Amino acid sequence: MVWPTTVAELIEAQRALAVANPEPWRPGPLTVGGCFVCFPRGHTGIGAAGDPAWAAAVLLADGRRVGRYVVRATARGPYQAGLLALREGPLLEAAVRGLPRLPDVLLVNATGRDHPRRAGLAIHLGAELGVPTVGVTHRPLLATGEWPEPRAGAASPLFLEGELVGYWLRPRAAKRPIVVHPGWRVDPETALDVVRRCCARWRTPEPLRLARRAARTARARSG
Questions:
Q1: Helix ranges (DSSP H) in 98-181
Q2: DSSP state, 147?
Q3: What is the mean pLDDT of residues 110-118?
Q4: Most buried pick, 27, 85, 90, 135, via CB within 10 A?
Q5: What is the CATH classification number for the domain harbouring 104?
Q6: What gap in Å lies between CA 188 and CA 53, rounded to an integer?
Q7: CA 19 – CA 118 distance, rounded (Å)
Q8: Is residue 192 part of a domain?
Q9: pLDDT at residue 1, rounded to an integer
Q10: Would you name any one GO CC term (predicted)?
């Protein structure tokens, strides 16, 4: 499958993904990946096609990093809410495919069913790669729900038009919660379990934290 290059093509693809019914994934022993893309320091606004970008992916097994890959490329479009795949999708796919192997599950800095057409980038990227995915963001896109209790590991549901589309999760006591989004082939409860496993030390799940650091380090070294 080729990434859409226009808004109309992306919307059509998102609508197809929203009604897809792939076999649910169930975790066993995990290799967990994370991917992240960053743009030039001080970058503000919606950006534009051609913006420099650094995309990184890491692979962890038993908590140890066993793979990392960074690619420098350019964005294919500006940021538009609900259309993030146009800007970041091909960059993240290239970074993940550069790993020594595909992960059992991939953490993505993007939404899943919390999306106007129920198919955010976390779902789209998983479908392109053929890999189960979980989205992790700092806040919901459209969904609503009360914050969880202030204890570590507490979670509370997020709903969009009556549908459970994710969870607030508080990885560390008294710290701001993050949002966990079920992605490709992953249900909300499984997504929550995966992210809890990856938040032993930090608020940001370790695979995403390491991917973010790798992307930003590459940006700094490029000057």
A1: 121-129
A2: P
A3: 97
A4: 135
A5: 3.30.2170.10
A6: 31
A7: 9
A8: yes
A9: 61
A10: cytoplasm
